[in-house]
TrEMBL record, chain A:
<keyword id="KW-0408">Iron</keyword>
<keyword id="KW-0560">Oxidoreductase</keyword>
<dbReference type="GO" id="GO:0046872">
    <property type="term" value="F:metal ion binding"/>
</dbReference>
<dbReference type="Pfam" id="PF01494">
    <property type="entry name" value="FAD_binding_3"/>
</dbReference>
<dbReference type="GO" id="GO:0051539">
    <property type="term" value="F:4 iron, 4 sulfur cluster binding"/>
</dbReference>
<dbReference type="GO" id="GO:0004174">
    <property type="term" value="F:electron-transferring-flavoprotein dehydrogenase activity"/>
</dbReference>
<dbReference type="GO" id="GO:0071949">
    <property type="term" value="F:FAD binding"/>
</dbReference>
<feature type="domain" description="4Fe-4S ferredoxin-type">
    <location>
        <begin position="513"/>
        <end position="542"/>
    </location>
</feature>
<keyword id="KW-0411">Iron-sulfur</keyword>
TrEMBL record, chain B:
<dbReference type="InterPro" id="IPR033948">
    <property type="entry name" value="ETF_beta_N"/>
</dbReference>
<dbReference type="Pfam" id="PF01012">
    <property type="entry name" value="ETF"/>
</dbReference>
<protein>
    <recommendedName>
        <fullName>Electron transfer flavoprotein subunit beta</fullName>
    </recommendedName>
</protein>
<dbReference type="GO" id="GO:0046395">
    <property type="term" value="P:carboxylic acid catabolic process"/>
</dbReference>
<keyword id="KW-0249">Electron transport</keyword>
<keyword id="KW-0813">Transport</keyword>
<dbReference type="InterPro" id="IPR014730">
    <property type="entry name" value="ETF_a/b_N"/>
</dbReference>
<dbReference type="InterPro" id="IPR014729">
    <property type="entry name" value="Rossmann-like_a/b/a_fold"/>
</dbReference>
<comment type="subunit">
    <text>Heterodimer of an alpha and a beta subunit.</text>
</comment>
Length: 553, 248
């Protein structure tokens, strides 16, 4: 059945209004203006507004922003709190911690000159700059699929609105529009659902290591002014995750912003092996550690969210270009895990792609080509150099754990400037890292106390997540029988635990069990798409505008 | 016939409201805003009336700061022909809003004034009524059905006892209730077109209105959090627990 779709054409289409997509849009417009020519740029965003689906730490390195808008201060960019102090802890137990002397901190973990920001708010500001430069931005519209004709990407089809859960059309059914462009830049962020298809179709990851991911959980707290130290950055490794082992690695953060606000979060590498592990519950109990609770006690939690993080770095970076388009930012995987920062790298990546696209279009390029100038510029940039120096950081932590791996990283980063003459590869994909439930011990998590720790549902409530309920489930099972028939006996169906929003439940119905998907809770973190041991869950875009409504994340 | 539709920019209904720590109001920085849902219903009704040929021009109007332009663009995407932005960065109380809207109504010579029955931010439910009073024209509030014929409007409203039907002479103020209609999805082509439609900017001074501060907000506090429940094991325990609370 074919439907009549409205069509709109642009020179450049950007899918996703995050740091990469918006920086690319701004850069193209700047270059077009400098050349005295017009390049039309359209940005679409699945969140209900720009920033609604953005979640990041975030300690922000302004290097790329300085290049994009040297006058960002005058333009009022929301970089308000410079980092004033860095503390790193090894959490050796539920109440014990070792503070790392500053001398031994890897260079990549120093934050002088950086700012503690809300990346969502930076994106809102970038969107204003982009609109002022003439970019058209349309939030509330999700790209469903790429338009591919004769093996060339020609744009995207937006998701239909007004389709009922059973697939029938409701009275307000509106078919999604076709947006066509000479070049389409995919900037969907970590594990973009179209990016994933393009990587497969064009075999972009053929020469790359398997991609690696983590899940980041974050809360915003308003704390007692007496305990607030604006600019303090606290990072940690170890408890409640492994310090010596490699079965559950990750790290934690606590950042003090302006206005008595702190960001607290836990990052759990999705290479964890025990299927009973619950990143959400690890995060909740983490907040009881004395180093963290000293700040949070007496405060109020105001927001919660979670997002997968792409952290394979250079070794796992796919090829960036294909006919008619390119991957930029975390859709490709440009995050620098050694710095645990992806915003400045995403911005820079977007800017590099923008330069390649603008140069081509200004020279009369008709579109639809493989723009090799983008990977060439990428390789010649500081971004490549930075990712090259950090390429061993993640694999070493996976192989040797936080303490020993951390020591190796200290030596490589501080003594060798990230240039060990060898490269460490990590070839096991995250979904293959789970051990059988029968080989693992269930983890008994403490009950939330309602003061520092909370249950999942009250947490999801704080993400202001909303989906139109009567629409097809956007978490598709390739084989609906797998969760109960295979995942449950083999892995105690880990989806119940790795999902930070309570989307997946195994319901007892007398003698049988049923797998329930509460899709309306989904915070669009993509963890299920990554971690399912059977690779059976496919995340597709729901109706535009659905998902979390993060404010200052 | 021309209709004036008033649309207010409010914190989005999906957002969990937070009270500022100093009690001076609610947090609005960085928070998603959108058109007051009841005003969306008014906007949708205006578009339907135009589609039925009952009205010929829809003018959307809003009062507020620079960001209210977004709300007007939404109204234009719904199908308003043009928009008026009454610019005011400070706090606007219902009476001031009503005075400015009444002045706009007069200036435009519109026959129909539509707005939501109340805004979901302050729940004041005053503006529509005061516009009618200031203009000394008829009003029909909480409409769940509107029919326009010639110089009259027949309005069905939901009241405690059931449905009440009123007939009012135009010009009139009609405020819209939840069940009047279900606003349509905005189509991307309409949103694109809305960017090119005209928005006129005016000030309170242009309209001869001076902001009055009749109401002073003294304090904003969040509702008390629900206290923890108690699990009882037997009926006797339940009865004695209820008695202890004085509920039996």
């Amino acid at each position: 059945m074919s439907v009549e779709r409205d069509v709109m054409e642009y020179d450049v289409l950007v899918v996703g209004a995050g740091p990469a997509g918006l920086s690319a849009a701004c850069r193209i417009k700047q270059l077009a203006a400098a050349a005295g020519q017009e390049i039309s740029v359209c940005v679409i965003e699945k969140g209900s507004e720009v920033g609604a689906h953005i979640l990041s730490g975030a300690v922000f390195e302004p290097r790329a922003l300085n290049e994009l808008f040297p006058d960002w201060k005058e333009k009022g960019a929301p970089l308000k709190t410079p980092v004033t102090a860095d503390e790193i802890y090894f959490f050796t137990g539920a109440t014990r911690a070792l503070k790392m002397p500053n001398l031994f901190v890897p260079k990549t973990m120093h934050n002088e000159g950086n700012y503690i920001i809300s990346l969502a708010n930076l994106c809102r500001w970038l969107a204003q700059q982009a609109e002022a430069l003439g970019v058209e931005i349309y939030p509330g519209f999700a790209a469903q699929t790429a338009i591919i004709e004769d093996n060339v990407v020609r744009g995207v089809i937006l998701s239909d609105m007004g389709v009922a859960r059973d697939g029938t059309h409701k009275p307000d059914y509106t078919p999604g529009m076709e947006l066509r462009a000479k070049y389409t830049l995919f900037a969907e962020g970590c594990r973009g659902h179209i990016g994933k298809q393009l990587i497969a179709r064009y075999e972009l990851a053929r020469d790359a290591d398997p991609q690696h991911y983590a899940i980041g959980l974050k809360e915003i707290w308003t704390i007692d002014p007496a305990k607030h130290r604006p600019g303090l950055v606290v990072h940690g490794a170890g408890w409640p995750l492994s310090l010596f082992g490699t079965d559950a690695t990750g790290g934690s953060f606590l950042y003090h912003l302006e206005d008595n606000t702190v960001y607290v979060g836990l990052i759990v590498d999705l290479s964890y092996s025990n299927p009973y592990l619950s990143p959400f519950d690890e995060f909740q109990r983490f907040k009881h550690h004395p180093v963290i609770r000293q700040y949070l006690e007496g405060g109020t939690r105001t927001a919660y969210g979670a997002r997968a993080i792409v952290k394979g770095g250079l070794n796992a970076l796919p090829r960036l270009v294909f006919p008619g388009g390119m991957l930029i930012g975390d859709d490709a995987g440009t995050l620098n895990f050694a710095k645990i920062k992806g915003s400045h790298t995403a911005m820079k990546c977007g800017m590099i792609a923008a330069e390649a696209v603008a140069e081509a279009l200004l020279a009369g390029n008709p579109g639809g080509e493989v723009l090799e100038s983008y990977p060439a510029k990428f390789k010649a940039s500081w971004l490549y150099d930075e990712l090259y120096r950090s390429r061993n950081f993640g694999p070493v932590l996976h192989k040797f754990g936080a303490l020993i791996g951390g020591a190796i990283n200290y030596i490589e980063q501080n003594w060798f400037g990230g240039k060990f003459p060898w490269t460490v590869h990590d070839l096991k994909p995250d979904h293959a890292a789970l051990k059988l439930a029968s080989e693992c011990k269930p983890i008994a998590y403490p009950k939330p106390d309602g003061k520092l720790s909370f249950d999942k549902l009250s947490s999801v409530f704080l993400s202001s997540t909303n989906h139109e309920e009567d629409q097809p489930v956007h978490l598709q099972l390739k084989d609906p029988s797998i969760p109960i028939a295979k995942n449950l006996p083999l892995y105690a169906e880990p989806a119940q635990r790795y999902c930070p929003a309570g989307v997946y439940e195994v319901i007892d119905e007398g003698n049988t069990k049923r797998f329930q998907i509460n899709a309306q809770n989904c915070v669009h973190c993509k963890t299920c798409d990554i971690k399912d041991p059977a690779q059976n869950i496919n995340w597709v875009a729901p109706e535009g505008g659905g998902g979390p409504n993060y404010a200052n994340m | 016939m021309k209709a004036l539709v008033s649309v207010k920019r409010v914190v989005d209904y999906n957002v969990r409201i937070q009270v500022k720590s100093d009690g001076s109001g609610v947090v609005t920085d960085g928070v998603k805003h959108s058109m007051n849902p009841f005003d969306e219903i008014a906007m949708e009704e205006a578009v339907r009336l135009k589609e039925k040929g009952k009205i010929t021009e829809i003018v959307a109007v809003t009062i507020g700061g620079a960001k209210n332009e977004e709300t007007l663009r939404t109204a234009l995407a719904f199908g308003a022909d043009r928009a008026i932005h009454i610019k005011e960065e400070g706090e606007v109380q219902p009476l001031t809003a009503a005075k400015a809207l009444a002045a706009t109504m007069k200036k435009e010579g519109a026959q129909l004034f539509l707005c939501g029955k109340q805004a979901i931010d302050d729940d004041a439910n005053q503006t529509g009524q005061m516009v009618a009073a200031l203009l000394d024209i008829a009003q029909a509030t909480f409409a769940s059905k509107i029919e326009i014929d010639g110089g009259k409007a027949t309005v069905t409203r939901e009241v405690d006892a059931g449905l009440e039907t009123l007939e009012v002479d135009l010009p009139a103020v009609i405020t819209t209730d939840l069940r009047l209609n279900e606003p349509r999805y905005l189509k991307l082509p309409d949103i694109m077109k809305a960017k090119k439609k005209p928005i006129e900017t005016v000030t309170f001074a242009d309209l001869g209105v001076s902001p009055a501060a009749g109401i002073k907000t003294t304090k904003t506090v969040p509702p008390p959090s629900r206290s923890k429940g108690v699990m009882v094991k037997t009926v006797d325990e339940l009865v004695s627990a209820l008695k202890a609370k004085g509920l039996l």
